[in-house]
């Protein structure tokens, strides 16, 4: 919902909006702005955004058009203050729309897990002879484990003697 109030106080005309400047309400605000601009002009026009709670991209474009036509945008709160400052710096929002998209992509990629992970190189703690140390510190196999190991080995003339030695000793 959007409420538009037009008032005139001497040389200043105020175009006050309250509610959400989004979706179908942007078209209604455009119509009201066109009618407002047809009326006899005062020296200064103020667009009051103090009661606006949300502005989408088409609403942002409408506010930029209002600013470009000479209206002064006024608002309170962090959202409207940032919006007004962006419009004052950039004019129409099309100039910075792709920048916002790229920046939001960089911030969202780590959240989705699709960003490449960069790990710092860590020094190797193992010595070059570490494979020897692990080979000698293995737990000795039991007879049944030795049997399985030799039973899966390719058959040769030495295999049966190993199996017998493994089971008997």
Write a structural description:
This protein is of the alpha/beta class and 169 residues long. The protein has two domains: 2-97, 2-Layer Sandwich (Transcription Regulator spoIIAA); 140-168, no CATH class. Helix content is 50%, strand content 20%. It is built from seven helices and four strands; from the N terminus they run ββαβαβααααα. It has a four-stranded mixed beta sheet with strand order 1-2-3-4. A hairpin with a 2-residue loop joins β1 and β2. The longest helix is centred in the middle third of the chain and has 19 residues, at 94-112. The chain is elongated, with a radius of gyration of 38 Å. The protein starts with a strand and ends with a helix.
